[in-house]
Amino acid sequence: MLVTDAAPPAAPPTGIRLWLRQGENLLLSSVLVALMVLPLLEAFLRKAFQSGIPGATALVQHFTLIIAMLGGALAARDSRLLAMSALPTILPPKWKVFAALFSGTAATTVTLFLTVAGIEFVKTERESGNFLVGNLPIWWVQIVTPIGFALVTGRLLWNASPKWWGRAVVFVASGLLVWLATHPPMDPAKLVWPAIATLLVATVLGSPIFVTLGGAAMILFWGDDLPIASIPLDHYRLVTNATLPTIPLFTLAGYLLAEGGASKRLIGVFQALFGSFRGGPAIVTALVCTFFTSFTGASGVTILAMGGLLMPVMLAARYSERNALGLLTGSGALGLLFPPSLPLILYAIIAGSKAQAAGVTIEKMFLAGLMPGLLLVALTAWWGVSRGPKDADDRPKFCGATARAAMWEAKWELAVPFVALGALFGGIATPVEAAAVTALYVFIATVFIHRDLKLTTDIPRVLTECGLLVGGVLMILGVALGLTNYLVDAQIPDKAVAWVTGTIHSKLLFLLVLNVLLLLVGCFMDTFSAIVVVVPLLVPLGSAYGIDPLHLGIIFLANMELGLLAPTVGINIFLASYRFKKPVMEVSRAVLPMQAVLIIGVLLITYFPPLTTWLPGWLGR
Fold it and tell me: Who is most buried in 49, 128, 136, 579, counting CB within 10 A?
């Protein structure tokens, strides 16, 4: 995923704008802290006094809704909404202006309709008379949905151009599109595909992902004369899912680790343990990237944060720049199959809601991903070792005392996976509480033990950055569910099952075709929106061929990893190009051997199901 780059950076805010900015940051940070503290307090009271906090679960779920909308608004404020296309970054200046105006018009129009739909949703909920906790009407919290979309609308309009004339163009053009949508010159059903094509052009020119997915859903609803208020309703239902708060909490833990000194300490540990081996730096790179991606859930964050530390290590070990670049780019996505990876959690939530995959849980997905994840890490490390210098004269000798000292220095970071999984599998906490325990543990270790981050200056910044990323992702997921539900209502999954099973009779051939299609999906969609849109269509197909839904999920996510590395279109290619200041084609060539190695791993995962199903099955018994 990339961030939008519709306009050049604005001058630092001053006066009232600065106060508003600080106030928004403080509010978002406060809600994130509340999201962490409330489950912990609930768990403590339940264990100590056999009584919890009334309505705690509902409050936590709605804190997630606030984070989604406010974080999305802040991402729009800073022009950091997630986008799929990198084309605007390489366009000539004049074309870049046109791209910003075109994509800005589409984005402003879509979010304006989302705002209106959100208002209709809140009106309906107000009439229902439901309460969140005690005498607190639920619509008092739900109103954050249209407010958030309205803020995003205004900021997309503002950021479409640094010039007032450009903003005026977007304002007028958006108004014209709204008028055409409400007063169509012909039957809307005949305008659906031209409208979808226009939206795709806007996506290529830089519109955010949530605009593409939400816009597609609204166009389809509009063409069938259906109310668009169901889109914010679907958004609300997904974002307030009982297990979804695990996503911002585990992301917070990952951000705290990445922003502190954990990366240097972990590199020190892995260098002390494996540096004496041939290809030791490659093993270090694979393990460190896996660790950080598993907690942040975003391979791009790993490349951007770890690249500057690991590239010098690789070059100092006499790796060629091309091999070092390929290994770092390819290793960025390795952690997606390891707990507590956010894609694993999201797949469990989406697939588990389907009758064909009712037994899929977060715990089972965590177990299912372990052995396939280890396989991909081992293959990556093997390739890195094979590219290392063969002469051992300049390799450091293994020193037990140095290794013990490095492990002792990094003991708090090394314990993080055991804290997370121990709380989850030990039967002492729910998934949300386990995520809260992990976030609190990392917070204490980072701020009070290592003192990497200062409580009053660094922590508010990290909380804001985390909330901004999470808000952008959750906004994508919410509107994507609206598109998914339209496809389900149109019986697309049933039609797909009938057509595919009638055309492909071999399970092995189906798995091969599935890999190819998922690889293409991974090239052009981010992992999170692909899970929400594609998985509900995929689960019935897997069931028709007798594929275990856990196995299907790991196949899906492994292919998403591959898609991130697709030459010239994979997101990690662009991020590595940006981080290491190398042309996209050079990065693409460098990563080709790594992609070939990972394809072998994906085929092994696909055609040897016990690799995925044995561990959850064994522990389940």
Answer: 579
With contact defined as beta carbons under 8 Å apart, do 553 and 347 qualify? yes
Query: Rounded distance, CA 55 to CA 373, Å?
Result: 38
Average pLDDT, the chain: 86
CB atoms within 10 A of CB 119: 18
- Using the 3D structure, point to which of 239, 263, 285 is the last residue of a domain: 239
How far is C-alpha 287 from the geometric centre of its chain's CA atoms?
Answer: 20
Together in a domain, 340 and 364: yes
- Examine the pLDDT at 84 and tell me if it is beyond 60: yes
Q: What is the dihedral of CA 35, 38, 39, 42, to 10 degrees?
A: -170
Cβ–Cβ < 8 Å for 450, 60: no
Same domain, 295 and 403: yes
The reply to whether 289 and 331 lie within a common domain is: yes
Domain that holds residue 523: 246-620
What one-character DSSP code corresponds to residue 242? T
With H, G, I as helix, E, B as strand and everything else as coil, classify residue 78.
Answer: coil
Q: Could you tell me whether strands 131-133 and 82-83 are parallel, antiparallel, or unpaired per DSSP bridges? A: unpaired
pLDDT, one tens digit per residue, over 228-239 is 888 999 889 989
- Quick check: 109 pLDDT over 90? yes
**How would you classify residue 546: left for phi > 0, otherwise alpha for psi between -120 and 50, otherwise beta?**
left
Q: pLDDT grade, residue 308 (50/70/90)?
A: confident
Please check whether residues 271 and 134 belong to one and the same domain: no
State the total domains in the chain.
2
Q: Where does 50-184 have alpha helices with state H?
A: 56-77, 93-128, 139-142, 144-159, 164-182
Count the Cβ atoms, other than its own, within 10 Å of residue 230.
18
Cα separation, 216 vs 480, in Å, equals 9
Domain C-terminal end among 239, 256, 286: 239
Q: Are residues 14 and 61 in the same domain?
A: yes
The partner residues of 137 in beta bridges, in order of sequence, read 131
Residues 233 and 251 in one domain: no
Residue 372 and residue 334: Cα distance in Å, rounded? Answer: 10
What b/e string do you get for 370-384 counting C-beta neighbours within 10 Å, with b at 16 or more? bbbbebbbebbbebb
Nearest-5° Cα angle at 556, 597 to 539: 155
- Is-contact 85 9, C-beta < 8 A? no
Q: pLDDT tens for residues 228-272?
A: 888 999 889 989 988 889 888 988 988 888 888 888 888 888 888
Residue 339 phi/psi, 5° resolution?
-65, 145
**Residues 218, 267 within the same domain:** no
Q: How deeply is 60 buried, as exposed, middle or buried, from its count of CB atoms within 10 A (0-12, 13-18, 19+)?
A: buried
Side-chain-side CA neighbours of residue 214 (13 Å): 32
CA distance 617 to 597: 28
Using CA atoms, how far residue 489 sits from 346, 485, 495, 584, in Å, is 22, 6, 11, 41
Q: Where are the alpha helices (DSSP H) in 135-163?
A: 139-142, 144-159
Token pair in block for residue 394:
């300049």
Q: Model-level pTM?
A: 0.87
The residue count for the chain: 621
Peptide bond into 281 cis (omega under 30): no
- CA–CA distance, 210 with 191 (Å, rounded to integer): 21
